[in-house]
Design goal:
- The protein contains 9 helices and 8 strands.
- With about 220 residues, the chain is α/β, with parallel strands linked by helices.
- The chain has one domain (about 1-215): P-loop containing nucleotide triphosphate hydrolases (Rossmann fold, 3-Layer(aba) Sandwich), CATH 3.40.50.300.
- α1 (about 15-25) crosses α9 (about 205-220), α2 (about 30-45) packs across α3 and α7 (about 145-160) packs across α8 (about 170-185).
- Cytidine-5'-monophosphate (C5P) binds near residues 31, 126 and 178.
- Cytidine-5'-monophosphate binds next to α2, α4 and α8.
- InterPro entries: Cytidylate_kin (IPR003136), Cytidylate_kinase_dom (IPR011994), P-loop_NTPase (IPR027417).
Amino acid sequence: MQVAIDGPASAGKSTVAKIIAKNLSFVYIDTGAMYRACTVIARNHNLDYGNEEGILKAIDQDGIELKSENGEQKVYSAGKNISLEIRTPEISANVSQVSALPGIREKMVALQRELAGHTDVIMDGRDIGTTVLPDAEVKIFLVASARSRAERRLLDLKERGIHTDQTVEQIEADIAARDYKDSHRAVSPLRKAADAIEIDTTNLSIDQVVEKISEEIEKKS
Ligand code: C5P
């Protein structure tokens, strides 16, 4: 069983995906973390975020590894745990430029398909239902108002202990800019798959979203 969850930034994808994966013993794969790791690698090598060839070489050198530790997905590169670093505002501000590079997408999509393998998997991102797992049995497109997504992002940063001086308005503007870039890039832009079910999470609790998606999975089981 493959479950694809797509949608704009901070719509609650990873929060609900993690809970459902735990409840159903599915493998959870956070594809955004992989593009964020590419961006950390580019920065660590002092590469321009548009330097596709340089970044691809640096990824080959450092590697990107997803490890499950105590049920949490951790990201490692060059032997270092970069799970917190990938969430910093600097990386969030530049990840869309790196993720729009066709060669980077090709490499990450191949890795994502390999990780999905033949196990039960729940994967979240922007192009899972359209490109990475086009045959997924369940496809969900999560949306929420820009303000509520900014509030969630601020809370998420606080909970992870990542300091930010940004106001909720600034975060909202950053999120809107990232969504625009992700929706307008040439290669597999953020788009709802024709067969995806759209859920607006603005006025729903986490439990309610989990329940709705679990019902869809149940129907296909
Ligand atoms: O999901 P998250 O907000 O962590 O994703 C970070 C960025 O990675 C997105 O803004 C987008 O540029 C990129 N991304 C992507 N395709 C995916 C997942 C994430 O392009 N499947």
